[in-house]
Amino acid sequence: MATGVYISKFLAIAIVVLTVSSIGGIITMIIVYENERIKTQPTAPPTTNSTTPYPAGPPPNMRLPGNLIPESYDIVLQPHLYIVMNNTTNQSLVFTGNSTVYFRCVENTKTIVLHSKEQNVTAVKVTDLDKEKIIKVDNTILYSNESNFLEIVLDSVLVKDGNYSLFTAFEGELLDDLAGFYMSSYKKGFIATSQMQPTDARKVFPCFDEPAMKATFRVSLIHRPGTTALANGKVIGTTLEVIDGETWEVTRFQTTKKMSTYLLAFTVSDFHSIGSTHERVDIKVCSYSCTFSTDAYFISTLDQIALPDFSAGAMENWGLVTYRETALLYEEGVSSTSNKEWIATVIAHELAHQWFGNLVTMKWWNDLWLNEGFATYISYMGVDHIEPTWNIKDLIVLNDIQTVFQVDSLASSHPLSSKEDDVQTSSDITQLFDSITYSKGAAVLRMLADYLDERVFLNGLRKYLQAFQYSNTVHKDLWEYLQEAVDEDSSHIKVAEVMDTWTKQMGYPVITINTTNGAVSQEHFLQNQTSDYDFEWHVPIRVMKEGEPIKIATLDKKVLMPDFLSEDGKWVLANINCMGYFRVNYDPVNWDRLLSQLEMNIHEIPIINRGQLIDDAFNLARAKHINVTLALRTTKYLWNDTEYIPWESALRNLDYFILMFDRSEVYGPMQAYLRKQVGGLYQHFENFTMFSTVPEQYNQINAISVACSNDIPECQEMARMLFDNWMTNKTSNRIHPNLKATIYCQAIAAGGEKEWEFAWGKFENATTATEKDKLRYALSCTRKIWLLNRYLEYTLNPDKIRKMDAVSTISYIARNVAGQAIAWNFVRANWNYIKGIMSLGNLIDGVTQRFSTDFELEELWQFLTDHDVEELHLAIRALEQATERTEANIKWVKENKQTVLEWFKNESRREQLN
């Protein structure tokens, strides 16, 4: 609602008349004074320093002042890189270029403030387009702080509503830092490519590098003859030109749609492409090897390119989507079914961005989830529509909801929509690219779509996209257009009122249900402390009772609800299919009834809820809402379940027990229990594994992994045999692609130097990215510490382990109990190199997951003390979360170790008695 001050019509007219009269009087006085001054020609007063009404210096915060609005750019870039080298040529990693930005002034100013980073700006020219004259530049200042401001001080004023242009010439380096305009290499040669998101367009050319500063872009690339240039638009012409005595190709591209700077992209390579023309769009998939293609959308061209080095999984640049090779390239017989599903999901994610992010963009990075949460959620819908047999939409529960629950139950979490002022620097922005933004964003949108009804939800989205195309939004805009669709459907849901509780507050609730009296309440769920916040959520809950259909209810405060009252001793189950973003706890009697049902007939409980009961129970136990033995009881029925979601939920939670206890006396009895529970699952898949057929890949992989790592002899012998056959035959590998990663890992873990060296040789010579990834993971499984140490050293050499893979490789090694301590020591010893690698948050998370001792906590604090804030700026949040998690782990182990040990021992004795 707008606010303001209101006055009477008569008073307003009187004020206007008085104002006009006063201005007229002042003008008359000035004219009379000037005439008299000219007649008398008085002596000029002493010269004083003139004052200016216009602000000088950079803005007081890290944001552009907003007084200049870019409308279009003309950009010329010339990478001097040689794509293919010969013995007589020295490689050049320089790029040069120029840019002209045409902008409108909305507030008088004598300075132009925009962004520039790590460039040498060699020429600046400002033109008044209305008067067709050059404006003199008094000074150019590049600020070295994190603002990356380039301030251009002018001799005269840029006036409101005036139209101007700024020409800059510049030069920079094509580094291998995977940011801005950078250099990548592969066996055949080199490639110049780009990654602008979130704030690296400024590394390429001076620009207004904020997402709301949308403009059109006309790009020309000057490149070596025989190479191919790509950018966001269609090629409109290529010519040969002589520049500085050398012949170059000049490729000019169609002007883009109005878009943010972070969506710009260009590449120069000798890659091949395969084209596909559809009704509305030409699609090309580019790579130096194999290809994968897909249908698309509403602009005239869509290029998709697989890059040898890429920091993200993929990037949604409008018209030129860039990918890691593993996210785009699929080879039948080599890549696994999970590789195919991953590729389809990533492509769907990037195509979803063409609407959510590219067409309609968040105004500022604090609402990044409007881009990433939507793309994540819609990717599941898109793939499920194309391949419903994959049931991929259910995997959001495992891949996103259960995963982000862990982070969002920490006191160091953050809301989906932060305050704008809390997100200022590039470091602030980069840290928002986390699981809260992606996974929680997707989870709450899934919950909202279910609550409103998907038909109403999609109708509101269409309205939202239509209203804000080529523009920017805040989260309130989304609520407004969803509300319009809700009202049209005659529903009484207040969208903003509901959703503000999920987007403006961090964390999520645990819903506690007492089925003996129907009492339902909520509280902020935290893993290791009580909440200091008075949070309250508007919670939609789907509930079913034994033998009765599903109902939906809503909860705000503690209430008595008949739908949650048990009748005739029947169980009650809430949050059906995990459509809500919350955990559920019950009274002990209802827990017993649910677990008894699982023991008697698992099919009465939906598959997703079987996984939910396990995941909720383990996390409720860690937060002391229930006893740890109740959580462990939820896994006892699994000997009779072959479904993936329940097993994966159990294994992920038992993995926490492994991380906490695999260096203690608890681990032996725990392994004995796991051998007993996985026996049936392994036998279910055993024949399929031996004959390299795969009926259901994910749980077959679980069966092999759990059986082999817990010393089931038949499994270990099978893995050794299959790997030995490959080592003997060398060129013939009959291990099914779906099982390669786990078979390789188990064989290398059981083997020694010979197996490791064989796998390393295969890794070096692999031509398929998915095969290289499987081998790279498996190499971390060895128990030989000297081999793990050598492998860690390889991550410092991009010729051995690419920079984009360094973080995940170190994390793989840290997951290995033999490698955890050396990986942590390695990170600390090489921090000056490692801090320049993307995904520091993932790295810190990976190498500290096992931390559960006072000594390890002290090491974390010492690490924080040894480095200043500037050195740690991209890892601060991850280190805070690691510290909080370590404190929680220490406390949990001290409180539960003996109880857990006795439980596993008792289960082992019971098995022996049977």
Could you characterize what this model shows?
It is a single chain. With 914 residues, the protein is of the alpha+beta class. Among the domains are: 14-42; 68-270, Immunoglobulin-like (Sandwich); 363-500, Neutral Protease, domain 2, CATH 1.10.390; 509-634, Immunoglobulin-like; 784-907, Alpha Horseshoe (Zincin-like fold), CATH 1.25.50. It is 42% helix and 20% strand. Strands 5-4-8-2-1-11-14-13 form an 8-stranded mixed sheet, with no helix packed on it. It has a 5-stranded mixed sheet with strand order 16-17-18-20-19, with helices on one face. A 4-stranded mixed sheet has the order 27-24-23-29. Helix 4 (396-408) packs across helix 6 (435-452) and helix 15 packs across helix 16 (713-729). The protein starts with 8 loop residues before the first helix and ends with a helix.
Helix fraction by DSSP (H/I, runs of at least 4):
40-55%
CATH arch. level architecture of the domain at 68-270? Sandwich
Rounded mean pLDDT score: 88
- Give the N-terminus to C-terminus distance in angstroms: 71 Å
Q: How many strands appear in the DSSP assignment?
A: 29
Helix-strand category? alpha+beta
The name of the CATH topology of the domain at 68-270 is: Immunoglobulin-like
Low-confidence stretches: 1-50, 288-298
By CATH, the superfamily of the domain at 68-270 comes out as: tricorn interacting facor f3 domain
The proportion of strand residues reads: 15-25%
CATH class of the domain at 68-270: Mainly Beta
Q: Which of globular, elongated, flat, extended, rod-shaped describes the shape? A: globular
Main β-sheet, spatial strand arrangement: 5-4-8-2-1-11-14-13
| Number of separate helices | 27
Largest sheet: 8 strands, mixed
